Amino acid sequence: MRRFRRAGIRLSVNQNMRFDPSVRACADLLQRGRLGDPVFASIDMRAIPHWMPWQKRQGWVTLRIMSIHHLDTFRYWFGDPVRVYASVRPDPRTERSFRHRDGICLYVLEFADGSRASAWDDVWTGPAPEGAASDIGIRWRVEGTRGLALGEIGWPKYPARTPSTIDYTTIDDGDRWFRPRWDAVWFPDAFSGPMGELLLSIEEDRPSAIDARDNLLTMALVDACYVSAREHRAVPIREILRRRKE
Q1: For residues 60 and 125, what is the distance between their CA atoms, to the nearest angstrom?
Q2: What is the DSSP letter of 175?
Q3: pLDDT at residue number 132
Q4: Which end of the chain is more exposed for a tag (fewer CB within 10 A), N or C?
């Protein structure tokens, strides 16, 4: 990162879930105060990813490949948490191919304002490929003091073009739901977001919202999840940052 800075080169990291239309729409509601103060948020992933062969050499899968998107989205919505508690177990299906620790992952984020966020990244989802019926999808929920937003991410149905969705209701608008819809999808449309953000940061001569420094904080959160799962305790994010500095 220092080398890029000294060379005058801007570096952005492809944190593309931030640019999924439903995630972006929820961020707008939060930034405009439409949902009030955050109270609780959750992401419920029931999906079967396509793991790459090189992961067999690593001994890890979900936290660094899938959960990182959800952890980064929580940071995008609410800022940096104070601490995280994570629990993991191997995925029975993946374990047939190679040993790993973080197949199915659950984690809770605690924020300084008292709000909480939680996700369960379930890459088993039941024995659907083995012959049972399937229930696959990714759903998120953000509860605030003045409103509620619900969303669904469309990528598990890829290559079928399935846009993500958001439904929301607020005290200000009374007893009704708003359900905006669009044609854009995470895969591949959201990938234009990180590239556009990089080009805008160059054009406007400003740091990118997804620059390397910001991504280090997402990676610190991922590392904290690994430490938490290994040591069975809540891990303050500052502990990980202090270790890196030392």
Answers
A1: 18
A2: S
A3: 96
A4: C
